[in-house]
Amino acid sequence: MAEDDTITIRVDDRIKQALAALTRGGASATTAIERAILESARRAAPAAPTEAMPSSIDSRTLSVQRKLTREQLLEFAERGYIVIPDVVPPDILAAANAAVDKQLRAHPPEEGHAGPHFMFPKWEEEPDLAALLRDTQAFELAEELTGDGAMEYPWQTQIAMTFPPYVDDRGMPHIDGGMRRKADEPPRTFTMLAGFFLTDQDGDDSGNLYAWPGTHRAHAKYFREHGPDAFTSYPDIKLPEREQIRARAGDMLLKHYMVGHNVGSNTSDSVRRTVYFRLKVRGHDATWRQILQNPWHDFTPLRPLVSSFDDNVE
């Protein structure tokens, strides 16, 4: 845009939500309002109609609009996850790795530790990690699965590291937020997981996330048959073959909440680093029973694409 161009920012739901967060004490005034205004400005600005982004990118290319292809939408619907290459430019990636280094100095594992190590800074605590989602096109790409303006920013970040040598021999997946919960407590469900690869994980056993493709649909079928309150342990379903999710540093994973997954082995020479955000559509928490039974509940744009699925519930 030219320097004298202006953008009209209406007081939309995001800014209203930020103001509400202030009264709950969930964010500082500066952080909440700044985040909401930046997002509103981003949505108001005109975008070029280009559908692709170069494989070698920097921050100057972030104004180029990306769109998920029909093939990617179908892959997410059928398998439950997709990896999108080159979402994070090198400068944002480097800043995120530096933020992980800082967190690691503050919360180090025990000396000689091998295996998973998790840290959970709040969103406003590490702006260079929040930038992975906020200052790239990641959030807009995720909303292509749920509908424009449907989601809200998360309050927490997860740093997931796997120190070698580590071999995971559990052979079983899990679903976040419901395992071992009490029957009278609502599960901590969400819409989808957005994962950002800070290190290369393009070979086997380099800390790759394990995923069981298609299990979001199998889990929903199970909960339709047994009721959503049965979500106190892992559903008794027939598991497909496990896969290792492969990606390069700067790529992004979008994974349906109900896809079974687990920490993977790391027999490489490098520590695996991934940053996760748990994303929700607005009003998600009040509808968790429907969400567990209908895998398309939060994914309105996907519903026309899944009409031919044998297990379609629409």
Describe the secondary-structure layout:
Blueprint: H1 13-24, H2 29-44, H3 70-79, E1 81-84, H4 90-106, E2 115-119, H5 127-134, H6 138-146, E3 151-152, E4 158-163, E5 192-197, E6 210-211, H7 215-226, E7 243-244, E8 252-256, E9 261-262, E10 272-281, H8 288-293
Antiparallel strand pairs: 1-8, 2-4, 3-10, 4-10, 5-8, 5-10, 6-7, 6-9
Helix pairs in contact: 1-2, 4-5
Structure description:
- Residues 1-14, 17-32, 41-57 and 59-63 have low confidence and may be disordered.
- Helix 4 runs antiparallel to helix 5 (127-134).
- The chain is α+β, with helices and mostly antiparallel strands.
- Helix content is 29%, strand content 14%.
- The protein is built from 8 helices and 10 strands.
- The protein has helices at 13-24, 29-44, 70-79, 90-106, 127-134, 138-146, 215-226, 288-293; strands spanning 81-84, 115-119, 151-152, 158-163, 192-197, 210-211, 243-244, 252-256, 261-262, 272-281.
Radius of gyration: 20 Å
Tell me the series of helices and strands, N- to C-terminal.
Answer: HHHEHEHHEEEEHEEEEH
Number of strands: 10
Q: Based on CA inertia axes, which overall geometry fits? A: globular
Helix-residue proportion: 25-40%
Q: How many domains comprise the coordinates?
A: 2
Percentage of β-strand residues = 5-15%
The main pleated sheet reads as: 7 strands, antiparallel
Could you say what the CATH topology of the largest domain is called?
Jelly Rolls
Structure in a nutshell:
This protein has 314 residues and is an alpha+beta fold.
Keywords:
314 residues, alpha+beta, Jelly Rolls, 7-stranded antiparallel β-sheet, 8 helices, 10 strands
